[in-house]
Amino acid sequence: xxxxxxxxxxxxxxxxxxxxxxxxxxxxxxxxxxxxxxxxxxxxxxxxxxxxxxxxxxxxxxxxxxxxxxxxxxxxxxxxxxxxxxxxxxxxxxxxxxxxxxxxxxxxxxxxxxxxxxxxxxxxxxxxxxxxxxxxxxxxxxxxxxxxxxxxxxxxxxxxxxxxxxxxxxxxxxxxxxxxxxxxxxxxxxxxxxxxxxxxxxxxxxxxxxxxxxxxxxxxxxxxxxxxxxxxxxxxxxxxxxxxxxxxxxxxxxxxxxxxxxxxxxxxxxxxxxxxxxxxxxxxxxxxxxxxxxxxxxxxxxxxxxxxxxxxxxxxxxxxxxxxxxxxxxxxxxxxxxxxxxxxxxxxxxxxxxxxxxxxxxxxxxxxxxxxxxxxxxxxxxxxxxxxxxxxxxxxxxxxxxxxxxxxxxxxxxxxxxxxxxxxxxxxxxxxxxxxxxxxxxxxxxxxxxxxxxxxxxxxxxxxxxxxxxxxxxxxxxxxxxxxxxxxxxxxxxxxxxxxxxxxxxxxxxxxxxxxxxxxxxxxxxxxxxxxxxxxxxxxxxxxxxxxxxxxxxxxxxxxxxxxxxxxxxxxxxxxxxxxxxxxxxxxxxxxxxxxxxxxxxxxxxxxxxxxxxxxxxxxxxxxxxxxxxxxxxxxxxxxxxxxxxxxxxxxxx
Length: 654
Known about the structure:
Structural class: alpha/beta
Shape: globular
Largest sheet: 7 strands, mixed, barrel
Helix content: 25-40%
Strand order of the largest sheet: 21-22-23-24-27-26-25
Radius of gyration: 24 Å
Number of helices: 24
Strand content: 15-25%
C-alpha cells in the first residue's frame, strides 16, 4: 500500500523507532516557534542547558499575545525575549507584526518540514503540507538544542472532503462539524489528513482554520497536501522557491477514514462551555448579545475579514453590541486597508484593536457580568475570555458580523438575503504585501556572543523539580472533574499573563477560579496529589499548568484520561502522570484522602502502580502510559535534568 503524507514526512525525519501507531519514535525538528506569554520559561530552560546557539534550521520568537502593558512585567518580558533571541540565534517577530501562527505560515512555512511550537495551535501550519505540532516550552527548548524529539507515532486519519462551501458558510464550520463528530478528546493520538476535491477547493487560509482548531479535538496535528493552492499562496508571498509538491500516494493506507461533504454544511455554533458543543446556528434560540469579537489566529485572514466587511457594508453594529476586531497580521491589515475592507468595518462601527491575539486569551475585551460574547476564536472554556460568568459562543466571521448587526444570533444569509452570494466572490490576494521589517534576523555568531541578556526584576529562575521518591505518601490537594482545562489551572488574562515569568508569584493563583483555596491548601500540605476526571489538562499548551502545581508540591496527577500536551508537560516538569486502571476508583477517592505508594521507583518501570488510600483503607491500581524515554525523564526528575545529563555525556537524547 502507498504512504500517507504524514508518514512521508515522518519517514524523512525519523531518527529512531518504528512508525507503528503507539510506538515511541524520535524525529528531527526543522523549525520552532514560541510566543511571549509562554516563552520566558523556554529561554530560561535553554540558557540552563548551556549551549551557545540554537541548532535548528529556523527558530522564531514571536511577541504577539500580550501587548496590553498593564504594568512593567510584560515589557520587561519582551525585552528579555528579544535579547535572548539575539543572543542565541533566533528570529524575533516584533510587537505589531502579527500572530505567530499566521506570520509563521506566511513567512517561514515550508512544505514537508517539521515544526514544533510552544502553543497548542501550532498545527495551523499544516495548511501548506508542514507537520506542525504544539508542545510545551521545555520541549521547544529541547528541540532548539538539535536533540531529536520524542513522539508517540500517531494514527493517521484520512478526511476525504467533497463539494464546495456555499456563500455564508466558512471553513470554521468545517472544523466545528469535525468537533461535533469527533469531540474534544476524539483526536487524541491522531493526525487528521485532509484530502479530496473538497480540500483542493480550499484556499490556504481556509485550510489553516481547519488545521488550527484540530487542537480542540486533542489531535497531534492536522495537515493538507502541498498542492496547487499552496503553490499559489507561497508565490503570492514572494516565496515560490519554498514550494515543493507533496501529496499522499493515490493508494495511501490510513488507520481510519472519515468523509465530509462541504456543500452540505450550514453555519454552525459552538455553545458554552466546550468547542464540541456544536449545533446549527439557526437552531440556537435567539439571545441578546453584548459583545462580538472578530479575530484570532483561527479566523482573521484577509478572506475572513473581507467577507465579514461585506456583511457589514451598508449596515451598522447594533447599539447594544460592543464589536471589536483584531487582525491576524500587519500584512493582512495593510491588504484590507488597501482594498477598502477596513474602511467598511470602521464605517459600520467596528473597533479595530491591536494586531495581536489579545481577547482570544482574555487580554482585553473581557465580557460583562453574565454577558453573551460571540467570537471567531477557537476556545470557549468557562473563564477563557476572562470572566467565568460570561457565556462564549464560537462562530465564523460571517456569522459574527451578522450577529453584531442584529444584536442577536444570526447568519449572514439572514442579514444579507440574496446578497449573501457576493461572499463567494472573495479571494485571497494574488500578491501579498510582503514587508519583513518587523522580523529581526538572527545575528552572526560572533556578534550574538556580545549580546547581554536583559532580565527585569519579575523574571525569576525556572523551578527544577526533585527526583521522585521511592515511597510517596501524600494527601489529595484537589479532586477535579472532567475536561479541566489549562485555563482552569492557570487562568488567562493580561494580569495573569504578566506573571508567567515569575512562578513564585503566579503559583499563588493556581486554580484560583476553579478552586480558590487550592494554592494555600497545597502549600500547607507540602506535598500532594491531584485527582482528575476525563480529558484532564485540555486546551492550551501552557506548561505553567504543570510548573505551578509542581512548585506547590504536587508530585503526581491521577486522572481518568489526560490531554497529550499537558501529560508531556507534567513529565517534563517532574510530575508523575497516572491513569486509573479502573475509572470507578475515581469515585472512591476524595479531597484530603491520604494516598500511599510504596516502592514507587520499582513499580514505575512496570507501567502499573499499586496505591493505597489510607484514609478509606482500600488499594487501587494506576497505569503509567509513558514511553521508555518519558519514563527515563520522570525518573531523572524532569526534562531539564535529563537533557543536561545526556548532553554532558555527549549523547543526542535518543
